[in-house]
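Quick review question:
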């Protein structure tokens, strides 16, 4: 049951969740029947008609419009990428940073965000890791670390390792006040937490699509602010150009870049995944991200209630204002939990400080109760 939408109907899209207790959507989500069908339709078009490429490309633009609507930005601000890491690397290399400049990151944040910036240390850019104070990151986390050479802040919106939900609106305001670039890794929030790009005001915001956006690995989205003109792509292809040569002959005097986010796109698209994304957006829009979030918070409250009753500590924040709706790391006592949960047909991920339970739009209250009962059975024995 859910107060927010018909979870039973959603579960019929994901039959695998009746065969196992799937609590690992922060790792990847199972494929919905409608998303699989969209992939099969795409492959059939290629197989039967040798690919109606202009039709496919028109659909790319339609999906771009829908992604923009999801993030509350203009379609011209959206580039398709391969994954979050590519988006973070495009961002890090597009910023006009010089030797001696510094970038602030959060200690312990996702390595794929950190490495994109650590790679810049080869050209003399300094990376400073700022510790969290308490359970969140907001403007005060960074205020003292900013000096005259600070040029950018980059962090995850939601952390994969403990389910923090950082105050990206406040950090975005700080960046605008202090003239800093702002880069957000939204991998764990897209499709689960409503995102308002206009309110966040990030220079770049990137995400892969294989978690909350429900498509197979290999597609990412990258939002780029259009009013920041000094952002240049590290790579160039015909698709990056304002006027690609009609005769397909490259010339050095024809390298003016597109003004929109398309200047960061390289060559052909991941067309199968973009077709899959059209179907997953049907599913997500049909429910509404706000309802997906509200349902996940309810499941989280229920899980925290079980943990309190069992005396199990939650590693990340408890407070709804500071925690993500769908990611909970449990500090279970003793060893052997991974093997035990696998033997009980429960899918979770091991995390730094415990085991991570993460919800998808198909999880139900009874999933949470079943999980708690499975944990309880072993707690007495360890
Ligand atoms: C916050 C965050 N960033 C990035 C990634 C992964 O990056 P990519 O999409 O490049 O695989 C993950 C999880 O896999 C993540 O949780």
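Suggested answer, residue by residue:
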């Amino acid at each position: 049951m859910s107060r927010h939408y018909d979870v039973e109907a959603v579960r019929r899209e994901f039959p695998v969740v009746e065969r196992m207790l799937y609590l690992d959507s922060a790792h990847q989500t199972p494929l919905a029947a409608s998303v699989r069908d969209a992939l099969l339709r795409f492959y059939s078009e290629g197989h039967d008609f040798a690919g109606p490429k202009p039709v496919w490309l028109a659909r790319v633009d339609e999906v771009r419009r829908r992604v923009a609507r999801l993030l509350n930005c203009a379609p011209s601000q959206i580039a398709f990428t391969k994954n979050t890491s590519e988006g973070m690397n495009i961002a890090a290399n597009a910023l006009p940073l010089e030797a001696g400049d510094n970038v602030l990151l959060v200690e312990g944040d996702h390595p794929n965000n950190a490495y994109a910036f650590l790679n810049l240390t080869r050209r003399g850019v300094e990376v400073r890791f700022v510790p969290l104070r308490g359970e969140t990151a907001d403007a005060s986390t960074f205020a003292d670390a900013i000096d005259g050479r600070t040029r950018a802040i980059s962090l995850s919106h939601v952390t994969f390792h403990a389910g923090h939900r950082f105050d990206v609106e406040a950090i975005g305001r700080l960046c605008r006040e202090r003239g800093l670039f702002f880069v957000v890794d939204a991998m764990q929030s897209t499709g689960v937490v409503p995102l308002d790009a206009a309110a966040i005001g990030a220079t770049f915001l990137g995400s892969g699509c294989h978690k909350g956006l429900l498509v197979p690995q290999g597609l990412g989205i990258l939002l780029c602010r259009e009013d920041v003109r000094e952002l240049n792509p590290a790579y160039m292809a015909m698709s990056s150009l304002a006027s690609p040569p009609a005769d397909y002959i490259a010339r050095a005097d024809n390298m003016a870049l597109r003004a929109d986010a398309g200047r960061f796109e390289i060559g052909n698209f991941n067309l199968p995944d973009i077709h899959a994304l059209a179907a997953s957006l049907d599913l997500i829009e049909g429910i509404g991200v706000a309802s997906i979030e509200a349902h996940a918070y309810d499941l989280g409250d229920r899980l925290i209630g079980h943990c309190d009753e069992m005396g199990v500590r939650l590693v990340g924040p408890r407070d709804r204002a500071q925690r993500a709706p769908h990611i909970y790391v449990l500090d279970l006592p003793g060893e052997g939990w991974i093997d035990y949960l696998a033997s009980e047909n429960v899918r979770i991920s091991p995390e730094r400080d415990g085991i991570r339970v993460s919800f998808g739009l198909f999880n139900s209250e009874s999933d949470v109760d079943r999980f708690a009962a499975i944990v309880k059975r072993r707690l007495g024995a360890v």
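Why it works: Residues 83-85, 110, 112-113, 156, 160, 185, 187-188, 208 surround pyridoxal-5'-phosphate (CB under 6 Å). The two ends are 33 Å apart (CA to CA).
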